[in-house]
Design a protein that fits this description.
- Helices cover 20% and strands 43% of the residues.
- The protein is of the alpha+beta class.
- Strand 3 (54-66) and strand 4 form a beta hairpin.
- The relative contact order is 0.22.
- It is built from 3 helices and 14 strands.
- The chain is globular.
- The strands form 2 sheets. Strands 1, 3, 4, 5, 6, 7, 8, 9, 10, 12, 13 and 14 form a 12-stranded mixed beta sheet that branches.
Length: 215
């Protein structure tokens, strides 16, 4: 009987340890794509491989460490470009540019890159360039604003009733960054940097996700 109790306690302790390890870092997340992410299934299916090939995503660390390196208050932004619509079977080759918080030390910058790659392995496997940028972020509810120097920008707000088209809207895609998100309206979404074969600006769409991440 004692052996059974001891094993149960050890199992609980191991579970608690795994939970603590998995929750070592937390923060905010924001993303925008070049297609609606809050939409009806018919609209989403009709857009596959026509639009939705680009995205900007950002992780804003509230507190925590990655591989033993503290990342409290630091940020990393990814600009992503694919051959086809992201998160579909036809997305094809995906390339990304990472913009790392200019406030990060060399060690912290390395950890931010590793964190982003771990949180978005499907889309950050081919990083063509890593750059330092002044990254600014603010959020109040579904109103979020992100800038990475002059290269990337997202601004979001909550939907209003007039934003519904088919009244069957839902979140059509998971987030790129393994985050718990709500969909939001995109007021601004742009990437003006180099390295991805072009730039984009895709404002005033139902194309944003905003929320939190934990690992």
């Amino acid at each position: 009987m004692k052996t059974g109790i001891t094993l149960a306690i050890l199992a609980l302790a191991a579970g608690a340890g795994a939970a603590n390890e998995g929750s070592a870092i937390t923060g905010e997340y924001i993303e925008a794509r070049t297609c609606d992410v809050w939409t009806g299934p018919c609209f989403a299916n009709g857009e596959i491989n026509l639009i939705g090939k680009q995205a900007v995503a950002a992780w804003i660390v509230t507190r925590g460490s990655w591989a033993g390196t503290s990342l409290d208050g630091l940020k990393v932004v990814a600009a992503i470009s694919a051959e086809g619509t992201l998160h579909t079977s036809g997305e094809g080759k995906v390339e990304a540019v990472l913009m790392v918080d200019e406030k990060a030390t060399a060690e912290q910058a390395k950890a931010l890159v590793a964190m982003a790659k771990s949180l978005a392995p499907q889309h950050l496997g081919n990083i063509v360039k890593v750059e330092r940028r002044a990254i600014v972020y603010s959020r109040k509810g579904l109103e979020g604003e992100l800038s990475a120097g002059e290269d990337a920008r997202i601004k979001t707000t909550a939907f209003c009733p007039c934003d519904a088209i088919c009244c069957n809207e839902e979140k059509a895609y998971p987030s790129i960054g393994d985050a718990r998100v709500e969909c939001a309206k995109t007021l601004e979404h742009a990437y003006r940097g180099a390295g991805l074969g072009g730039t984009w600006s895709d404002p005033v769409k139902r194309s944003a996700m905003i929320g939190t991440f934990t690992r």
